[in-house]
Design brief:
By secondary structure, the protein is of the alpha+beta class. It has eleven helices and twelve strands. The structure holds adenosine-5'-triphosphate and magnesium ion.
Length: 456
Amino acid sequence: MFNTLSGRFLVLTIVFVMLAEIFIFIPSISRFRVEFLSARIERAQIASLALLADDMLSPELEKELLENAAVFNVVLRRNATRELVLTSKIPQPVHETFDLRSASTWDLIRGALKRLADPEPRVIRVIGQPRLRGGSLIEVTLQTQDLRSAMINYGVRIFILSAVISAFTALLLFLAVRIFMVRPINRVIDHMKSYALSPEDSRQIIKPHAKISELREAEVALQKMQNQLTGALKQKRRLAQLGEAVSKLSHDLRNILSTVQLLSDRMENSEDPLVKKLAPKLITSVSRAVTLTESTLRFGKVQEPPPQIRKIGLCQIVEDVVLNERMWATNKNTIVSSSIPKDMNVRVDPDQLHRVLSNLVRNARQAIDLRGTGGTINVTASEDLEQWLIDVVDTGLGLPEEARAHLFEPFRGSVRKGGVGLGLSISQELVRGHGGKIYLVWSNQNGTKFQIKLPK
Ligand SMILES: Nc1ncnc2c1ncn2[C@@H]1O[C@H](COP(=O)(O)OP(=O)(O)OP(=O)(O)O)[C@@H](O)[C@H]1O
Ligand SMILES: [Mg+2]
């Protein structure tokens, strides 16, 4: 409890409010004492006025007047010559004298604290100013018990009140801290956790929306860091693959270049008409080498930007892919079709999904072309509460064993003549950037089915 932010606020608020209450308590208890004593003086003053009517009071009446005023005796100095005096027996010697007329705040506070600290019943003398110009001085003698118990009573009331106030304030602060700080902080923490689970998924990158400026700054910094990290992770994966690819590349290049060397050797040696015939081969070899190196280098450098997700009709994208691919189909008997519900909207980066589908459909078309007799490619889609599913089915020759073993691995999956082996690996990366998956559902000599799963 004390180790949570809101718990600390709760405890500290109670402590601070209680502390503040102590500072309020000390002067107010001293005020309370002064007021208590002034009230006694006032009552004593009224009692002593009975003497104005009758100079000689009966002892009974005098005793009653003093008892009513709750003092042992009163001296009221009316003017230089006249004094009104009521007296009774004092049970013990006067312990202390307080002059309220000249007491400083300090004296009053000290007097109050001393009274609270001293449990012994004492008799004290208090000198004050008579009320309403009733005289020049009044002096009373009284017992401290009543005063002390009234002060304790008052103190307990203040203590209860401050306990209630501090508990209430602390509760409010506790709730405020929970709502305005802990909750947004927890949101960021949850975000960090889910990001940590799949740091390559750019959709997990935090979108700053905290209203507290410090927290927002933290979110912005986090977003920047996550962008860099996600980018770096992709880059790192590519670099590792690039290293692998480059060694393969140099191996291939050596073969190609040795062909070139062989040909150029022959060209050098003779004026053979063969030169004319061989020259194009030389050019093809060289250009193949160039293509290979180029796409390898491109792969090493290009950084896929995070997807620009927006809502779009799926059939729009699919139809465009299908139209493009029909133009490439060499065999008249190849049918490229799609059946996507017109109202199916997806939240994706349209360009990236277009590239993914183009790769899948192109691979399918190439597999059909291998058959030579044509075939069909069909793109369909369905959705449920959590995801969209897009299927690409073809009637091509199916995946060769080697392609299947290294599916989605850059440069390794290709067994196609002229294929680089990047199509599926790039597609997978793009789909992952959407938090989705791409996988082979089935493949045999009658055809192949790939599926893309995109979370909603
Ligand atoms: N629908 C399919 N039917 C049969 N084989 C396929 C199909 N899709 C992919 N393949 C096989 O998987 C291999 C890898 O595909 P991928 O798209 O990654 O590379 P590629 O098509 O060879 O080259 P690139 O697309 O980079 O030009 C292909 O060479 C092909 O043999
Ligand atoms: Mg391909």
